[in-house]
């Protein structure tokens, strides 16, 4: 197994990435419990999510809290056919659901991929519109190790330098681009956020920090 798999293989419950995820989602589980107490069930909209992600939560917990999870993606993702999950093709910046159609809106490491600030603002507005509670996680720009490239400080370099490095070097678990144009497109598709940016996008949320060695690795916006 490659060293990157040992770090961030989310199918492996013992990888560092899986352990950190399990710790990070504790507030999400509290939202689910609160929702179940009030409504006897929990309708979750996960924007950009997969069924694999939800395996970090014990299936008995999801069953006991009558969770139904709708996964929205811009493309088809792997489907198990489990009745808990509904798969929808859609755009997180313009969702085809009515206001408060769900109990909890959820997004994990997606908002940094939706494009420019206008898109990020539209994405955040949809999150806030679609459910009374939400849980939105994103990597912190100021954490020194970039989580996609798994390289220190690479995200502080100019865009064209990042594209050259990605084109020439094996970085993290990312596929090597075949052309410089593809590399530039990939790099442009990753723009990490800072804590002030998250507070601006989610003014009605608490912004929590996931820390490693005292440093803020990722940011989580939660509206309870």
TrEMBL record:
- Tell me which Gene Ontology terms the entry assigns under biological process: methylation
Q: Name one GO molecular function term.
A: methyltransferase activity
Assigned keywords, A-Z: Methyltransferase, Transferase
> Pfam families under this entry?
Methyltransf_11
Record carries keyword Ligase: no
The Methyltransferase type domain covers 79-130
Q: Does the keyword tRNA-binding apply?
A: no
What is the protein name stated in its UniProt record?
Class I SAM-dependent methyltransferase
Which source organism? Methylomonas fluvii
For this protein's source organism, the top of the classification is:
Bacteria, Pseudomonadati, Pseudomonadota, Gammaproteobacteria, Methylococcales
């Amino acid at each position: 197994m490659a060293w990157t798999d040992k770090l961030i293989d989310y199918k492996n419950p013992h990888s560092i990435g899986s352990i950190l995820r399990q710790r990070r989602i504790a507030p999400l589980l509290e939202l689910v419990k609160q929702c179940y107490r009030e409504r006897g069930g929990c309708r979750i909209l996960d924007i950009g999510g997969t069924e694999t992600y939800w395996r970090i939560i014990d299936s008995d917990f999801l069953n006991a809290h009558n969770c139904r999870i709708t996964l929205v993606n811009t493309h088809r993702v792997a489907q198990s056919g489990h009745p808990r999950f509904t798969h929808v093709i859609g755009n997180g910046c313009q969702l085809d659901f009515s206001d408060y159609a769900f109990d909890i809106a959820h997004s994990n490491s997606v908002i940094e991929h939706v494009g420019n600030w206008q898109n990020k603002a539209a994405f955040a507005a949809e999150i806030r519109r679609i459910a009374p509670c939400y849980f939105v996680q994103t990597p912190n720009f100021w954490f020194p190790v970039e989580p996609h490239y798994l390289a220190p400080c690479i995200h502080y370099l100019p865009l064209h330098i990042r594209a050259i490095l990605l084109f020439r070097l094996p970085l993290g678990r990312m596929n090597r681009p075949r052309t410089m144009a593809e590399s530039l497109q990939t790099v442009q598709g990753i723009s990490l956020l800072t804590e002030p940016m998250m507070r601006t996008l989610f003014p009605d949320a608490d912004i929590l920090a996931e820390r490693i060695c005292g440093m803020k690795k990722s940011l989580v916006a939660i509206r309870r």
